[in-house]
Amino acid sequence: MTKETEKQQKREQIAAAARDLFTEFGYRAVSVAQIAEQANVAKGTVYLYFKDKEELFLYLVQEFIDEMGRFVHEVEKQNLSIDEQFHTVIYNLLKYRREQKFLYRVVREAHEMHFALARRVTNILDSDITSYIEKLLEQAVRNGKVRPCNPKVLSFVIVHIYSALAFEWEEKHEPLDEGQVAEAVRNFLQHGLILPDGEKQPS
């Protein structure tokens, strides 16, 4: 085993310990000493690999961002329509974020405790998804596949509609399955809500 490989394994050992503790107790309740104990290393060893607890936390978040980036890249290689790309990327990334216990804890801390670092992380995650949709919209406008629009504003709206239907809806209603969420957003995007003057909804 090379020295570089050994260092990487040690870094991952510390990161895995921190992920488990952050997931169970939250960021603010965990100390570097506890992370060191969980990883079975000296406290000073943690600081050899990470400047402080915040850097370690952001390292874990970056791992998830990289994973989401790989997913988006795989979607781009598929021959999907624009609404299928919207749905595949947004719904699955939001679902992934909720199902990953570490990320779910981050989001919960951000919303329930107004924790600044957690809020910053959720903003980064939302921004990544929104930026992808914005680029997709810009390309679709250029290719004449969608009407001229403000891609920045519309991408924000689309992502938050998905988020609301996929997760917030079930707080007060029966949960919607993936197909129902996709259909609701697809109808909104393809047909809109308000009919043009003189046009009536078929009976």
UniProtKB/TrEMBL annotation:
GO molecular function terms noted in the UniProt entry: DNA binding
One BP term from GO: negative regulation of DNA-templated transcription
HTH tetR-type domain ranges (all copies): 8-68
InterPro entries per the UniProt record, alphabetical: DNA-bd_HTH_TetR-type_CS, Homeodomain-like_sf, HTH-type_TetR-like_transc_reg, HTH_TetR, Tet_transcr_reg_TetR-rel_C_sf
Protein origin, superkingdom: Bacteria
Record bears the keyword DNA-binding: yes
Keyword Transcription annotated: yes
DNA-binding annotation, residue ranges on this chain: 31-50
Keyword terms, alphabetized: DNA-binding, Transcription, Transcription regulation
Listed name of the protein: Transcriptional regulator, TetR family
Protein source organism: Ethanoligenens harbinense (strain DSM 18485 / JCM 12961 / CGMCC 1.5033 / YUAN-3)
